[in-house]
């Protein structure tokens, strides 16, 4: 039996970048101590969620994977603790910039990079200003402990991302996120956000882990206009039928962990017959707008 | 504002076919009286769920849409009450037979037929013995009250069905079902079943209605082997973020109804940006096994 323990860590982020790294590291060490093998941190945890505003100087935050501080820092941590760490970062690549995740395996080496496919745009989620739509396509990663799929935040709203990673052999799905208040739309998306991902988990019959940030962040755009967002945390872990087994609240900086038997889940997935009964020849509409 | 009221009716079914029709009709009349415009009955409610067993004589239950009793009966009811009725039936077509739904519009005319795309197979769900995999592809229907998508039972487990119908312009999704106990697998799929569909509703940002049957049904296959199933009802209606707004229990024969403002939901769907941000060029894996 391949038993695996996965963890989701949740933290707030400020412009004190040293503190962001050290808080994330403490949670990773705590989760590893509890036996976690793969530990997920929130999206872009190295900085505040700068996409809250369109601000030209923030374009300079993008770094290559070789230069990015968080990736380099957590390569050493992953190796020391023997844990897998998907690290979300703002990636510079020549004249383009991506919202990326470097997958660091338990030996501290980078297995590769996934670049966020779906880029949101709306008040306080001005990602189309910063990020080139990802050019890697969906990817799965043969880590030391499991074959995993990693999407990034807005990707988690699209059934296509989850299904593609499942078809490519993912056994567990991970989604770092940065989501909170909608300062203009009159909506609280917390339950909606969870239900979409519970659907991916239930429909693909595999656990799903999402880590979100917490805290209030205030920003000022290039016009000098001020805004603020409250990130709602609620990081969670589902089992293979989509039920939430562990969840953090809307404010705490902490981690959750859950253990899964991957071979038993694979047997259940197989017994259920969904992947046997797919009919790709009838899915052409999915490739249209 | 286009206000619409939708209903899900839930009933048990026996080999007293007259009673099946009259019980379904009573629920349709009650739902229409409460103001429902589109009323969903369970899958194959005209008979017991004969697919519980492989029995050669049951192949003879298939009839053309012109011959099928339930379809003909409810054409008159739809016209009298001015309601839309998707009617599930076992359809004969030359030498093939399908698990089909005829969409009867509020004037009693058939808009067309959808044939179930995904056909399950497993102990007590021996549908591959009876049904040719559907050849219509997913379809949406311009009914008097709304543009609707209708899948059939096992289709509800596949994100591709729901997404395809949403991309074709569906405003609400309907799924007649016949699901209950798993006599061999050690699992109760009730919550799993709901969560997958809540995910379709949340991910496509539209209401979803599923009607399931209730009751215990005993069958004997062509070998003389006896089996029985308990259908778990729990017919439900979600709002556009996937939350369940109405639900029946595991035993009652009754209906539920909920009202929706379709234009307000369309505005919310548009504001959320999911359909704007899809990237079909990255979804090719979906068309593979």
SSE map:
2 copies of one chain form a homodimer.
Chain A: E1 3-10, H1 17-33, E2 38-40, H2 69-81, E3 85-93, E4 96-104, E5 110-115, H3 127-130, E6 140-142, E7 147-150, H4 159-167, E8 172-176, H5 190-204, E9 208-211, E10 214-220, E11 226-232, E12 236-238, E13 244-247, E14 254-261, H6 262-272
Parallel strand pairs in A: 1-2, 7-8, 8-9
Antiparallel strand pairs in A: 1-14, 3-4, 4-5, 6-7, 9-12, 10-11, 12-13
Give structural notes.
The structure is a homodimer of 289-residue chains. By secondary structure, chain A is an alpha+beta fold. Chain A is 24% helix and 28% strand. Chain A has six helices and 14 strands. Chain A has helices at residues 17-33, 69-81, 127-130, 159-167, 190-204, 262-272; strands at 3-10, 38-40, 85-93, 96-104, 110-115, 140-142, 147-150, 172-176, 208-211, 214-220, 226-232, 236-238, 244-247, 254-261. In chain A, the strands form four sheets. The first copy, chain A, has a six-stranded mixed β-sheet, with helices on one face. The first copy, chain A, is globular and about 60 Å long. The termini of chain A are far apart. At the A-B interface, α4 and α5 of A face α4 and α5 of B.
């Amino acid at each position: 039996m391949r038993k695996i323990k996965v963890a989701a860590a949740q933290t707030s982020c400020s412009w004190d970048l040293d503190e962001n790294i050290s808080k994330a590291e403490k949670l990773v060490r705590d989760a590893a101590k509890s036996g976690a093998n793969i530990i997920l941190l929130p999206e872009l945890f190295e900085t505040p969620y700068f996409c809250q505003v369109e601000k030209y100087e923030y374009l300079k935050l993008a770094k290559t994977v070789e230069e990015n501080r968080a990736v380099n820092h957590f390569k050493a941590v992953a190796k020391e603790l023997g844990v897998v760490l998907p690290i979300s970062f703002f990636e510079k690549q020549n004249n383009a910039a991506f919202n990326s995740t470097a997958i660091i395996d338990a030996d501290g080496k980078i297995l590769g990079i996934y670049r966020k496919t779906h880029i949101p745009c709306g008040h306080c989620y001005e990602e189309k200003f910063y990020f080139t739509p990802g050019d890697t396509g969906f990817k799965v990663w043969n880590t030391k402990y499991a074959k995993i799929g990693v999407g990034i935040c807005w990707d988690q709203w699209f059934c296509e991302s989850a299904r593609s990673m499942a078809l490519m052999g993912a056994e567990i799905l991970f989604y770092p996120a940065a989501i909170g208040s909608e300062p203009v739309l009159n909506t609280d998306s917390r339950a909606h956000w969870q239900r979409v991902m519970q659907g991916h988990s239930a429909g693909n019959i595999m656990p799903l882990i999402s880590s979100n940030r917490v805290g209030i962040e205030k920003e000022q755009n290039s016009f000098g206009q001020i805004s603020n967002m409250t990130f709602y945390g609620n990081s969670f872990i589902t089992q293979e039928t989509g039920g939430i087994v562990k969840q953090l609240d809307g404010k705490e900086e902490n981690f959750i962990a859950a253990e899964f038997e991957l071979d038993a889940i694979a047997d259940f997935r197989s017994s259920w017959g969904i992947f046997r009964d797919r009919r790709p020849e009838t899915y052409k509409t999915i490739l249209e707008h």
